[in-house]
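Annex B, item 7. Sequence and structure tokens for protein A, then protein B.
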Amino acid sequence: MKKKVFVFFPDGVGLRNFAFTDFKSIGENMGFDITYWNNTIFSLKDNLGFNEVKIEDHSTHPLLPIYSRARKRAELNVSRDKFSDGVYPTYKFPFNYKGLKNSLKSIYTKCLIGLYSSEKGIIKLRQKINNLERSTSKYKYCKAQLETHKPDLVFCTTQRSTQSISALLAAQDLGIPTVAFVYSWDNVPKAMQVVETNYYFVWSDLMKEEVLKYYPFVKEEQVFVTGTPQFEPHYDASLKESRVDFFNTYNLDVNKKYICYSGDDETTSPLDQYYLEDLANVVRHLNNKGENLGIIYRKCPVDFTPRYNAVIEANKDIIEVLDPIWKQVGSQWNQVLPTPEDFKMLYNVCEHSEFVTNVCSSTVFDFVAHNKPCIYYNYEQPQLKKGIRDIGQNYKYVHFRSMPSKEAAVFCTDKKDLESLVKQILDGKLSNVEICEDWYQIVAGKEPTQASKNIWNTIDSLLK
């Protein structure tokens, strides 16, 4: 008899990995009965023809945002003290004191943080959150769905969504095994593990070490290294278009060499548009010296600010805008959802660009999968002033300590050096690819093409 697995989407971030890759077909070929347990407003049945059970009740306890924020800050405080490391407070967002309601919420949150900033306190805080979520209508609703459909296992596609807590508690209370996939390379040190499940699937040995380091209540036998489906499309040769076809599709000049500028969200890089401007100035200067270069600007899919517009308009002879093919289906950042077509676009942007430049993005790994270098900007802009976040903070984060050496990316630490670095890469005299391949393996695991299969094999072994 086929084992029934609920693939649970608490929000849209997992769609890219688990709906638009070959993840489903691989599981079905291995004999699994797969149903998507869908908490998003994106219909998998209507858009992809997948078997789904929709969660229509999205209620959470009114106190959940306060308790969840307190948990995160308490965990960061414990990490700061336990590891004597000042990086952890830099993951915190400031409190909001605008208006009486926000002020009261912030004061209450700070009281909770004061009470629970210890390893035992965090466990109590998590228990309190679970008790709050068990009291919601969504908990009862999800429990009824599970009793009707009787899955053998629930696979949650991200560990970071508060929308998943009540649903996973309902499964656990019915004795259904639960798995959480740790979604992103930087999530564990940032105290973004919202849920507690029976098992955790992670990208790499490094990520497994981190889960056990930061969450002492998790046992080693609960954590499995599977890899991530995130990079699998880069190894799918069927996505590749010829240079001529790709350039024709997007009205690019086949005689030009293009550098990809991969945009960042406003929180990570609030002055990102000025790095694009710096690159445009360098390209213009090199073109005046006889090069024939252009820039492909691919924005961060969840950035809807107009901050790049002036730079793009002033350099429209150099910059070609290739927006990610994502659809906005709601007002929240996690309701901007990828489409299968975007895999093909990203594959070919990587394949047909000379290299990528950005501020600390994981696109370094997308491009190294195509043997393409990456420049990381790491200098201050003159527009930096009090209240604007310095991008240099990003490179001090824990996940950047996974670099085997600083040569895993080409760091531009002074604007005056940018032209020389660009020229050296174009001339084949400078590359980070070889060392970055080591870094990619450290972060994403040793089998980037096998992640979906590894996940299903691990689920199979757990169910046996």
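Protein B:
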Amino acid sequence: MSGTTTGDGPGAALAPALDALRGYRVYARRWVFLLVLSLLSCSNATLWLSFAPVADTIAQHFLLSTEQINWLSLVFLVVSIPSGVVAIWVLDSFGLRWATILCAWLNFAGSVLRTLSNTRMGTQAPFAFLMSGQSLCALAQTLVIFSPAKLAAVWFPEHQRATANMIGTMSNPLGILVANLLSPALVKKGISIMLGTYVIPAGLACLLATVCLWESVPPTPPSAGAAHSTSEKFLDGLKLLVRNKAYVILAVCFGGGIGIFSSFSALLEQVLCVNGYSNEFAGLCGALFIAFGILGALVLGLYVDRTKHFTETVKVGFCLTSVVCVAFALVSQLRGQMLALAAICSLLGLFGFSVAPVAMELAVECSFPVGEGAAAGLVFVLGQAEGMLVMLLLTALTVRRAQPSFSTCRDGQDPLDWRVSMLLMAGLCTVFSCCLVFFFHTPYRRLQAEAGTSPSIQEGCPAAADHVPYQRLQAEAGTSPSIQEGCPAESP
């Protein structure tokens, strides 16, 4: 035990030595792939919600209704449902490289098409150009959202998978954060400037994806899981997922969480303006929501990479999210609660958004050997379907009321009463959390499979006896690694 590096969690130091014994190898260009995918995901998210923080201003400028502006966000949920299955097939059949390049070009084309709505060409039907551009970006979203889990699985070693998945997954909410901060500031300088600004990162991501990505998988796999990645055929994999009870429960509950958070992000400005909160404050709340989510995801990604406590982390995160969601439903209906709302939105992101990459990893673990694209993608498709239903339900339950003097909504119509809708959102979040806590149980099948392929570990490995998760998983897989002298030294 004297050889244990201070601060390293179980498995963090042993994993590189095991990978070396098995003949696996990692490549530095995996970080380039992750960077391109992260930039693309961030750009796509900014395009998704660039209108939501300034919904009333956009509606007034283009002479559109609030419902039409909501559809510019809702179209992402609608399009992703039929296109999601196709995206899973593309990802698992053609590989990460071609899926990412296709995604980048769709995203760039959509961003350019949106800008035409504010030109002479688009003056007659601005909504048509806006919706067409959003639809192309929505097609791109399904490809980029499904990719982090597969990228982490086929390019990164076992002890870096959760961290890589966290970076790729959290790039999407980072884009939402950028949209919440930039849109209120840019719209003051002009709609054309706002639309044109969002084209720049989309174009850069398109250029990098086309030029810098050379292959879908590395020449030598980084882990046993990568060596057997996508070992099931597409249709066979989908059948296995549908029959997997633990996966179905996770997909329904986590998909519901995705739907609630998508609706929250898209409707936040409209909920707050009714009670006198400005667009800038709504953007700040959205930014805090995402920023704390990214911070929490960073901590949780490093934590589960070392402990492998996927299930416990997701369950605790969901329960805490439900409590905060109830608090938001109550406080958002009150005036003059800026500090409380800012704190609640921060906690909602910290507890809720941060578990997203861990839940994606858990989906892969409980469904192995089904391909990572299918495992993560089906969860997202279901989440988008649930998000569409939740958003339609929340908006349908609102009623118009006589505009009070303190309302800051500027769409030219009476503001909406969101009280019942917000209570329903909190109730749904609580139901999904309870179902997950009580009914979700699963072994970690990918880790068990990797432990089952371990070669004999020779005695003399520093702290080999201390890496409990590896020994436990090996025992569950029916293996008992022998320990002999002369093993490689631990990586620092």
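Comment on protein B: The domain at 30-214+225-440 is CATH 1.20.1250.20 (Growth Hormone; Chain: A;).
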